[in-house]
Amino acid sequence: MNTFFSAHNVDKLKEIVDEALALKAAPYAYQSLGKNKTLGLIFLNPSLRTRMSTQKAAANLGMNVMVMNMDKDGWALETRDGVVMDGTTVEHIREAAAVMGEYCNVLGIRSFPKLKDRAEDYSEDLFNKFVKFCGKPVISLESATRHPLQSLTDLITITELWQGKERQKPKVVLTWAPHVKPLPQAVPNSFAEWMCKAQAQGLLDFTITHPEGYELAEEFTQGANITVNQQEAFQDADFIYVKNWSSYNEYGQILIGGEGWMPDEEKLKVSNNAKVMHCLPVRRDLELASAVLDGPNSVVIQEAGNRVWAAQVVLKRILETQ
Ligand code: SN0
Q: Is this structure's pTM higher than 0.90?
């Protein structure tokens, strides 16, 4: 593996999940793999789980880690070509990424979409330029349109919780939930992309539910069962994944019609005692009822814990191909 950006970078999902769970059982089995190798984690936006779990995963593999908070500590980056830099940007990504490549064997980068120009966000211009100019393997720590480490974690968590069940395949549901801020589509896009691939590989059945107007881009949802009836989606669900996102069609907007979509204990009654997932951070009693978050069906902490094994299996595969 050289780049970790989407589900397309992984062939057989069951294999990578099993490899991650083996790392969870023996975290230090590959401690010499990363000896004298440096990982650089570059953040253009805030992070808690991604930063700490990836740093820990790298340490488990014996790597050195450098963290750079570009948004706070770095120079303001220019990404456009052919512009005279007489404004607020100080350094071009061409030099900045190349310099980071000099210091690091592997790099990770996080950058959110601006949610203004859909074509610009969905071109993944910043991520692609970073890959091109740093010249080293790059892991997405969440880009404009995807959050692959989160989605791999989610598949690991679903697999782990479904082990030993009589029924072969769980019913997994992604539901839209309310929020006060326009949020990226990265997490739901990515979750849908990985779950559609998992469904195609016979691992689970996948349903998406959202109010009208919150359709995700079709490239991520091919094969999914999609409904605007949340209760119908929740019927017999084994896993319910809660996430807000802003509209893709009316790009970056919050639309009318999402009121009453917050999952609570009452709404979950029709499910098959579903485990409830969220990537975090979660707005209590806005996106998800606190009684559910604090109740026995919430697996959000186990899910966040599993971020380490997703990051570690990706780093392991990259180091093994160096
Ligand atoms: C991000 C998102 O993509 O939805 C990161 C998720 C891992 N979430 C937020 O920005 C939440 C911001 C808020 O104010 O609740």
A: yes
